[in-house]
Amino acid sequence: MRVAVSGYYGFGNTGDEAIALAITRELKKLGHTPVLLSNTPEESAALYGCESVARMAPAPLLWALLRSRVVLSGGGGLLQDKTSARTLTYYLSVIQVARLLGKRVVVFNQSVGPLSAGGGRRVAGALRGLRVIVRDHTSLDTLNALHVPGEIGGDPALLLEPSPGLTPDPHRVIIAPRGDVTDATERLKAVTLELQQRGRRVTALSFMPDHDDDAAHALGADEVISTRDPQVALDTIANSGYVIGVRLHAIILAAAAGTPFSAVAYDPKVQGFADDAGAPVHPTTLDSHTVTDEAMRRTSPNWSAIEDMKLRASESFARALR
Questions:
Q1: CA–CA separation, 276 and 122 (whole Å)
Q2: Which residues of the chain have pLDDT under 50?
Q3: Residues with Cβ within 8 Å of residue 264, at least 6 apart in sequence
Q4: Which residues have a Cβ under 8 Å from the Cβ of 42 and sit 6 or more positions away?
Q5: Are 91 and 56 in contact (CB under 8 A)?
Q6: CB atoms within 10 A of CB 225
Q7: Alpha carbons 44 and 311: distance in angstroms, whole number
């Protein structure tokens, strides 16, 4: 069975590429043919060993939807209008066209929100009657406020596994900034320095090279790793003792790898994941001493809660496809 997957794929964002890798891998394990809607379809097809079409080209997009029995909208943080109303319009349009074509459409392991009042009304109308699976309880609360029934799943990237043979280095700390969250970057410079003074080696991990590299280099870390490859990011995290993440998928991949972490919540989706995981979470105006102490002590999340999240992520494929 062909399954079309709509998301923010092919833009060089390691977090979204981690979702693409996990979804295509799981679908193939279940005997299905993923069709990824991507900004760079040839590259995505080669990377994930799947069919892929240009997400903004009307004819190939329509053809992909016509040939697929199921359309998954997600994962990722797609249904929000904080970035722009055009972003929300695109993802709702894919949902609406697929529905008109008579396809089974599932909102799949997304975060929902933030939404303006108008955006909320548009989302509520578009999702009426669909199966909606979200990846955190904050999104479930958003759906409840919109009177849209939903259920809890988990981010598909939680199902990724590090390469075999890696040994965590308890003295290595990963910091994953975000280029447009400058108040957090300034405070993370102080965290970097404090950690170095207390004998830790700090690696700045850039999840979106064109967007995050300047912030990563500004931290004063011992090394900077810039990658678009989700497996490289996951293995880097698995080879460390602690992660401090502004980027959502820095902490999601830490959870996948079994590496303890602290979150910096620039967006409700980061707060939502950290809350569900029972992990330390801070505003972008974080206190550097507190975050440094958490890294030094390797403060653990609720690993039992994370195992539950992984189980829900795995089971959500069967719920979406049956």
A1: 27
A2: none
A3: 181, 184, 188, 244, 245, 246, 270, 281, 282, 283, 284, 286
A4: 52
A5: no
A6: 16
A7: 27
